[in-house]
Amino acid sequence: MEDVPVLQVGELVERVRATMRGWGEVWVEGEIATLHRSRLGHLYFDLKDETALVRAVMFRGDQWNLELEPTEGLLVRARGRLDVYPDRGTLQLVVAELAPRGDGALRVALERLRVALAAEGLFDPQHKQRLPFLPRRIGLVTSARGAAIHDFLRALQQRCPSVEVVVYDARVQGDGAWRELVRGLHLLEAHADVDAIVLARGGGSLEDLWNFNREELVRAIFELATPVVSAVGHEVDWTLCDFVADARAATPTAAAELVAPDATALLQRIDALEARAARHLRGQLRELGHRLAALRRGLVHPAQRLGELRRRIEALRARLAAAAARLHERRAARLAALAGRLDALSPLAVLGRGYALAFREGDGRLLRSGAEAAPGDAILVRLARGRIRATVRESEGGTNGED
Amino acid sequence: MADEREPRFEASLASLEALVGRLERGELELEAALAAFEEGVALARRCSSQLEAAELRIRKLEETASGPVVRDFEPEEDE
């Protein structure tokens, strides 16, 4: 027994501690049990599985990086170094990092947070902001090296290339990525004058997407004045960002379709409206033209009217002339007939039978009685042919019965 | 943030539709119809000009020593 080296307790514990320091950091997976927080803010808990249990402590200064509030029953993966608590000689894991482990546990934690935030009203539809119809500039918070940025930009280029995009390059997974996401939202709102912000990331496991379930990010989206579209994950994935965002897109490509209108379709719609306006205006003009033509037919220009009058006058004059000519002819014919009849009664015709007519010279009065002429009067005797100028030698009166 | 141009686009489009509707219902005298048509053409032109662009303009917000700066940006082709 004397040969066997005997250690003091302090020495033993010190040797164990030295050995364990030599191991450096270890990763341990287990379930949290009997958790309590000290007055100073340190977290004390047990990590256990079916066969064993180890005590653990996470000092307050290491907790800034915690992904979620540790709770009993939560399966976690802890990074830390082993130590012995000298006063009790108990093994203790000093945890530097603690992350939820396993989908089941994550989902429990996530569901708890979702319910709490929903109860606070963060997901209420009345807080949703309307997305702009045609944004001038869109902010995009995503990894500049991810697939999401390419999907989004390609879709937007195709759909509405007049939109401007301002990218904020942020890590989208891993420790503390949510801080960059929050910073990107705030910086874009404050410095890039964007009409909407798209938060995008490709699909991934629940753990990959964990940053998008961070309470701080959810609250930042809620408080942002700019509308936010959440485009995190692929179809079946969802994160708390989807609940709090003003709109949710299943994929980054769908986000482009949500945030900008289809420019080609809009341009066609505008063209069609313009064409409709032109067509109806032409129709209206044509109709007015017809009405005008109809009115013009009823409307006679004064010059045209004068011409018409002149033509009417010409026609009347012609008719008048024709009538006059006809009248003249008729008269001439009648005259000739009358002349024939008159001829029979003509004194000249009587003279032809040997009678003569005597006129007093001077007043040319036809003498019907001897008393009408005195001796010495000059008289004119008219015969059937020629005449005789004579002087009365003697005259005697007679009765007028001879007339 | 809410830009002034955006609601103007939507409002312009709505005005254009209303104008065409009025033209089609034949509510307007020729003079007013011509004025409405001219206004419609101007609205259509204004709307179209906001949509016409061949290439997406992509920029990047970067943090520099003198504060955040927005610069032109060419995303890498690979992932």
Structure at a glance:
The complex is a heterodimer of chains A (403) and B (79). With 403 residues, chain A is of the alpha/beta class. Chain A has ten helices and 13 strands.
Describe the structure.
- Chain A has ten helices and 13 strands.
- Chain A is of the alpha/beta class.
- Chain A starts with 8 loop residues before the first helix and ends in a 12-residue tail after the last strand.
- Among the domains of chain A are: 9-101, Beta Barrel (OB fold (Dihydrolipoamide Acetyltransferase, E2P)); 125-261, Rossmann fold (3-Layer(aba) Sandwich); 350-398, no CATH class.
- In chain A, α3 (147-159) runs parallel beside α7.
- Chain B is rod-shaped.
- In chain B, a hairpin with a 2-residue loop joins β1 and β2 (67-72).
- In chain B, α1 (5-24) packs antiparallel against α2 (30-51).
- The relative contact order of chain B is 0.11.
- Chain B has one domain.
- In chain B, 53% of the residues lie in helices and 18% in strands.
- Chain B is α+β, with helices and mostly antiparallel strands.
- Chain B has a two-stranded antiparallel sheet with strand order 1-2.
**Which residues of chain A form runs of ≥5 with pLDDT under 50?**
none
Strand content of chain B: 15-25%
Enumerate how many helices of chain A there are, as a single number: 10
Mean pLDDT of chain A: 87
Helix segment tally of chain B: 2
Task: Spell out the key features of this protein.
heterodimer; A: 403 residues; Rossmann fold; 10 helices; 42% helix; rod-shaped; B: 79 residues; alpha+beta
Furnish the topology, listing elements before pairings.
The complex is a heterodimer of chains A (403) and B (79).
Chain A: H1 9-23, E1 26-37, E2 43-48, E3 53-58, E4 75-85, E5 90-100, H2 103-119, E6 137-142, H3 147-159, E7 164-169, H4 177-191, E8 196-201, H5 215-223, E9 228-232, H6 240-244, E10 247-248, H7 252-259, H8 263-298, H9 302-345, H10 347-352, E11 357-360, E12 378-382, E13 387-391
Parallel strand pairs in A: 3-5, 6-7, 6-8, 8-9, 9-10
Antiparallel strand pairs in A: 1-2, 1-4, 2-3, 4-5, 11-12, 12-13
Chain B: H1 5-24, H2 30-51, E1 57-64, E2 67-72
Antiparallel strand pairs in B: 1-2
